[in-house]
Amino acid sequence: MEETTRHPLAVARAARDMTQVALVAGVQAAARRRGMRSGTDKARVRKWERGVEPNEESQIYIAEALGLPPDIVRSDDWPNWLPLTADGVVPLGPHSSVPALREALRTAMERRTLLTISGAALTALAADWALGPTGALAQARDGKPISEELVAFLETSTQRLASLATEQRQHTAVLLDAHLSTATDLLARGRHTPATGLRLHTLAACLSQTVAWHRFDLGHHTHASQYWIAGLHNAHAAADRDMGAGLLGDLAYQAAWRNDHATAADILNHALTRAQNPAARCLLQLRLARTLAARNDRRAVLRALAAAEKHLSDAGTDRPAWCAWVSDADLAVDSGQALLDLGDTGRAHQLITEGERLLPTARDKTRGVFLAYRAASYLDLKEPEPAAAAATQSLLLARRIGAPRCVALVDDLLPRFQPYARARGVPELLQLAAA
To answer: Is residue 397 within 8 Å of 368, Cβ to Cβ?
Structure first.
């Protein structure tokens, strides 16, 4: 195995500051509430935490003792259904990569979301990443050997899935989930060299990031957070600082999307302390400018935009894959959106329109987002007809490629069209949105 970890039951218990004696009492109380009697004692808990599997009834009692609903229990998947944390964030450490992946996969299997990860917990994780050293990868000596051919296949097929046209990516979620589960099992149970382990951690980080964006686009925010966190742990294990910074940037983007701009700014400032590639720094500065604009900090916004422009001019072709797409189009649109939030509508509209024009056709999802931004800029200029045209284009594109997040952007604009209900294109937009 890649690392020696405590049993998930011991981890879940410790996350709740619960001793084995307290767990025994909780299990016995859960049985009594059902008119039953449990023979659980401290010795039995020790056996569970050493690998003995409790029966289904005992698993239900364990869930209740840990403060979890009974329907979280999947007795055929013990102990993987156990949450490993109380706040949703696995602490960063030398042996945290597989537990973080397990936590993300477990959360995604839940029939309901049990918690929302707090901004404080995410900021603390970002601070730990910014300050803490990465640990050396150890050679895994146990488990079945992993061939380089299998790892190469997973790397190649993952790259091909990620490079599909946007319209086709909506059909790949199950395949990506399966690839990530396989990579997790190989890290947890396989025998590999440090070099192969490094490739697996990098693969797990990339897959986690891609899966997270799938969940985020569907509005499954807790699931997305868990996958980005898992990716961060694996980028940390692989000593890939730029990848780690990018994953923190994604968590910050999500926080800003949910209007938690204080958390977004804190995370981005931590990410910028260690990001090195100019393209990565450009993207982080653009996201920082956007969240600072929402807080109306004009001077800081202009500094961040100037830094982003400088980093983009310094960026060559040697870029991490996760930010290889950053271009003049992104600089223009994000700069325009920041200026729009600051009230500079004329210049903002020019930049957003220019950025949408520069965007390559392969980035349809981004085009849908940019079109929604352009519609908002036209509304700020009190020009409802071109705003309706841009919003209609965005909505049709988003529905075709399966991009619910773009649909949500247009939906948020609809109340602003109500005063212009008779303007050309507005009735058709409202009818389309209602269909």
So the answer is: yes
Amino acid at 418: Q
Q: Is the pLDDT of residue 71 over 80?
A: no
- Residues 292, 210 within the same domain: no
* Alpha-carbon span 18 to 316, nearest angstrom: 52
pLDDT band at residue 1 under the 50/70/90 scheme? very low
Q: How many residues does the chain have?
A: 435
Alpha helices in 190-297 (DSSP H): 194-217, 221-237, 241-257, 261-272, 278-294
- Nearest partner of 232 among 343, 146, 122, judged by Cα: 122
Burial class of 406 by CB neighbour count within 10 A (0 to 12, 13 to 18, 19+)? buried
More confident call, 209 vs 70: 209
Assess contact for 382 and 391: CB atoms under 8 A: no
**Across 308-328, average pLDDT:** 93
Q: Are residues 264 and 307 in the same domain?
A: no
Task: Give residues with Cβ within 8 angstroms of 398, minimum separation 6.
Answer: 365, 368, 404, 405, 406, 407, 410
Per-residue tokens: 227: 């996958």
**Region 195-222 average pLDDT:** 92
- The per-residue pLDDT of the chain, averaged, comes to 89
Distance CA 186, CA 179 (A): 11
- Note whether 326 and 256 are same-domain residues: no
Count the neighbouring beta carbons within 10 Å of the beta carbon of residue 22. Answer: 14
Q: How many other CB atoms are there within 10 angstroms of residue 99's CB atom?
A: 22
> Amino acid letter at 235?
A
Helices and strands in the chain: count of H runs, count of E runs: 21, 2
- Chain center to CA of 68: 24
User: Is 60 exceeded by the pLDDT of residue 381?
Assistant: yes
Query: Tokens 């692989």 sit at which residue?
Result: 238
Cβ contact 58:49 at 8 Å: no
Is residue 166 predicted with pLDDT exceeding 80? no
Report the 10 Å Cβ neighbour count for 343.
11
239 and 319 in a common domain: no
First and final C-alpha spacing in the chain: 52
Do 164 and 255 sit in the same domain of this protein? yes
pLDDT of residue 262: 96
Computed on alpha carbons and rounded to an integer, the radius of gyration of the chain in Å comes to: 24
- What is the per-residue pLDDT for 143? 67
What is the reported pTM?
A: 0.82
Instruction: Note down the domain range covering 137.
Output: 87-275
